[in-house]
Amino acid sequence: MTDPQRPGRDERFGATGSPSSSMTWPPPTGAGKIGTYVPPLLESLGRDSMDPGYAEAAARRAVDPQGSGPSRTSQVIAAVAGLLMAGLLFGTAAGATVSNEPRAEKARSALLEDIDRAQTHQSELAASASALAADLRSTQADLGAAGPLQTVAELERASGSTAVHGPGLRIVIDQGNSGDTSGVGVIQDRDIQLLVNDLWAAGAEAISVGGVRLRPTSSIRQAGGSILVDNRPVFWPITVDAIGEPSALQVRTVGSAGFGRFSSFAQLYDIQFDVTAKQDMALPAGSGAELRYAQGPGPAESGSSGTAAPAPAPATATPSPATPSPATPSTATPPTTPAGSSPASSGSTSPVPTATATSTS
Amino acid sequence: MYAVLALVVGVVVGLFVHPTVPDWLAPYLPIAVIAALDAVFGGLRARLDHIFDAKVFVISFVANVLVAAFIVFLGDQLGVGAQLSTAVVVVLGIRIFGNAAAIRRHIFKA
Fold first, then answer.
1. B42 is a domain residue
2. In this structure, is residue A260 part of a structural domain?
């Protein structure tokens, strides 16, 4: 199979020296100089694409036609064995690639499932948390601690930890459809921050952005093209619901800087910016505030309050406004700085609760 | 003809028998495949040039595969595995293209 016409082949090679093209070894200087000619690297890369060994072997045979080379059968066997190996290698590699592919895919989908499960779990926990909070409030109301509980209810509403409903404004904003798919659109986090802050300033009592209720410590920020409210992504179009006295809210919002910015955006960039007054809107409860428990001063730093009071010591307590301990409802009154002084992050200012238009649901 | 048959049989056996590749060997398999491709194309071209030599083919095949795998292994140990893999792929790829072009000229005279 490998060389049907050995003499003819040898003769042809010997006669032409460099057969058929300039791409073959040996270089035109002749077969005798093989071994001394070292071509430059790049040049040889382009020229010696075939193994020079073939030419050398052919040259050897040309010198010694019926020499001590291997017989034709052994040539065939060797070639077959080599090609069998090569085929095995190809097949194995293809098989390994094919069998590895589902593994990577499986790992990826398993991760996705994990994410889904964790998100489901999170929403379940959030639902049970608000159910428990409702239980807690009804129990407290049954116990009849009216005065303190009123304060608690107001603080809870101000801190966004209860669902509320009432009249207000609904603002729907959406990125313009100007074909800009680069991810970062016209509207950015700071624009929404400005709008929300203006709504607070205009007298809104509760605000949700994209269905996420704002708390005094909520943040509105941007990660790439998506807006995160309280670290939860919200999607375009974003609905900003503000509960408050609608006409006053609308009048004062229209004069604000945020409203002006969005109006000019709507004119310049063709974004969607719709403001409607609603008679009754329901806002969900925000995610619960992180509980921080008051602790008595440790022995090392017993400077501020002399008595080692284990229970809520107002001197060192860090009041978390919305979450009074259920067993001691009277301790909920000390936090006199409920929302205004809590560390409001960049997203929102703090509401001043007036408790006129809304009622806890 | 035997040679082509052997290649096909090898591919089929490798595909259907599914020999398990040990994990330490898996990273070198792609490079070995490139090296083997180079040897096969070189052999085919030599065959068309009527200078094929089975000994040269087998030795170049084995040496190509081993050297390519060894270079990548060495690169992995030195922390430049990816770069050396690229170097091997570039060099062998150029050779494969050169051989394929010569084969094409032989077959199609163009």
1. yes
2. yes
Q: Mean pLDDT, to the nearest integer, of A45-53?
A: 71
Determine the Cα angle at A301 with ends A298 and A304, to 5°. 100
How close B26 gets to chain A, by Cα (Å)?
A: 8
Is A9 touching B (CB cutoff 8 A)?
Answer: yes
Domain count, chain A: 2
Under 8 Å between Cβ of A219 and A287: no
- Mark whether A65 and A165 lie in a shared domain: no
Identify which of B4, B81, B17, B20 has the alpha carbon closest to the alpha carbon of residue A83.
B4
- Provide the residue range defining the domain that includes B52: 23-108
Can you list the positions of beta strands (E) in chain A? 164-174, 206-209, 212-213, 220-223, 226-229, 232-234, 238-243, 272-283, 359-360
- A239 part of a folded domain: yes
Instruction: Classify residue A103: in a domain, yes or no.
Output: no
Q: What is the mean pLDDT of residues A97-117?
A: 85
Contact (Cβ atoms closer than 8 angstroms) between residue A228 and residue A218: no
Asked if A3 reaches chain B (Cβ–Cβ under 8 Å), the answer is: yes
* Full residue range of the structural domain in which residue A43 is found: 6-69
Structure tokens that stand for A196 in this block = 């929300």
Q: What is the CATH number of the domain that holds A165?
A: 3.30.70.1880
Instruction: Name the residue in chain A with its Cα closest to that of B45.
Output: A50
For residue range A178-228, list pLDDT tens digits in order.
555 544 567 888 888 888 888 888 888 888 888 888 888 888 888 877 788
Task: State how far residue B77 is from chain A, nearest Cα, in angstroms.
Answer: 23
Q: Which of the residue ranges A101-115, A169-183, A248-262, B12-26 would you say has the lowest mean pLDDT?
A: A169-183
Nearest to A203 by CA among A357, A39, A2, A100: A357
Q: Are residues A252 and A163 in the same domain?
A: yes
Domain membership flag for residue B17: no
A157 and A259 share one domain:
yes
Task: List CB contacts (< 8 A) between B8 and chain A.
Answer: 87
Contact partners, residue A104, CB within 8 Å, separation at least 6: none
Contact with chain B for residue A92, Cβ under 8 A = yes
DSSP 8-state symbol, A332: G
